[in-house]
Amino acid sequence: FRLSSIFQVPESFSNEVMFLTVQVKGPTHEFTKRTTVLTKNKESLIFVQTDKPIYKPEQTDSSTVHSEPLQGSYKVVLWTETGRIVEHSFSVEEFVLPKFEVKVTVPEKITIMEEEMNVS
């Protein structure tokens, strides 16, 4: 026959090897079985994210607590109950408009007779 039972193991913050002993007693027979089991602690999934990787000095995010943050790199670090470390990086930088150069090439002479001209 098959015996099914749900039981709770003692709380642990690490993976542990434990002994599981099952004993069945009947009117004429007795059965005992002992085995080792590896218990693993369940842990919640942790996800850390800011809404963008780069902030201006005056900007803040609901997941960060900056009154007047200095420019530079920052890291949010969380330690879980099991000792696992979760990290998320972001930076605070002054916004600078990108610089670029535009070169336009036109014909050396343009007359009123020309309806079209090539410009690159």
UniProtKB/TrEMBL annotation:
Pfam families assigned:
MG3 (PF17791)
| Listed GO CC annotations | extracellular space
A single Gene Ontology molecular function, please?
A: endopeptidase inhibitor activity
Q: Which domain of life is it from?
A: Eukaryota
Q: Domain Macroglobulin: where? A: 94-119
* The name this protein goes by in its record: Macroglobulin domain-containing protein
Annotated organism of origin = Neotoma lepida
